[in-house]
Amino acid sequence: MLLIELMSSHIIPAAYALLPDQMASPRATAMLLAIGLQESKFRFRRQQPTGPARGVFQFEAMGGVKGVLTHQATKPHIEAVLSTLRYDANVMRCHQAIEHNDVLACVFARLLLWTLPSPLPFKDQVNLGWEQYLEAWRPGRPHPDQWPDNFHEAWVGLP
Q1: Which helix (H) or strand (E) holds 26?
Q2: What is the DSSP letter of 47?
Q3: What is the pLDDT of residues 73-84, one digit of tens each?
Q4: Which residues contact 93 (CB under 8 A, 6 or more apart)?
Q5: Cα–Cα distance for residue pair 85/88, rounded to 1 Å
C-alpha cells in the first residue's frame, strides 16, 4: 500500500526528527501506522461524512489536540515542535493545521501515545494494542473487527 509506505518512510521519520530520540521506536511506528489505518486508512483528513475530527489520525479539537497541548508529559514537547514549525499553541489553530500537515498530525499522535502509562505493544500483542488505542483515542464508534488486520499490516509495513 503506497500510503502506508509514505507514512513509514517519510512522514513518521519527519515527525520523529522533531521529537526526543526516545519517542522513536518500531513499536511506536507500528502503533502510529495501525491507528492511522484504523482511523482514516490514511485517506481522509476530515472525519467522514461530516464529523469534527481532523488529520489522518482523526483528532478532535477538544479531545486529542487539547489533551496533547495541556498534558504535563507532552506540553513542553508539543510547544517546542509548534515553535519550530511556526504554529501557535492554540487548540483551534492546531486542529486546523493537522488537517493539512501530516507531519504535525503525526507528532500529535505520537505524543498522545506518550501519555499512556504502559509500554507500547510488541508485534504479537494485538489485544494490548487495541486497549491502548481505545484508551488514548477514545473512538466514538470503534471497529474492533478491523483492528487485528490493521495492527498486522502496520507491523508488515515497518521499514
Answers
A1: helix 26-39
A2: -
A3: 999 999 999 999
A4: 87
A5: 9
Residue pLDDT, tens place only, 102-116:
999 999 999 999 999
What is the rounded end-to-end Cα distance, in angstroms, of the chain?
A: 13
3-state DSSP assignment of residue 35: helix
- Residues pairing with 54 in the sheet: 46, 59
Give 59's strand partners: 54
Measured distance CA(75)–CA(158) in Å, rounded:
28
134, 135, 115, 127: which is closest to 152 by C-alpha? Answer: 127
Residues 126-150 as b/e (b if ≥16 CB within 10 A, e otherwise) read: beebbebbeebbeeeeeeeeebeeb
Whole-prediction pTM: 0.96
- β-sheet bridge partners, residue 46: 54
- CA 125 to chain centroid, in Å, comes to 19
Q: Distance between CA atoms of 86 and 89, rounded to whole angstroms?
A: 10
Yes or no: say if 42 and 3 are a contact pair by the CB < 8 Å rule. yes
Q: Report CA-CA distances (Å) from 64 to 57, 58, 108, 109, 152.
A: 10, 9, 8, 8, 24
CA separation for the pair 22, 125 (Å, rounded): 21
* Domain range summary for the chain, segments of one domain joined by +: 2-156
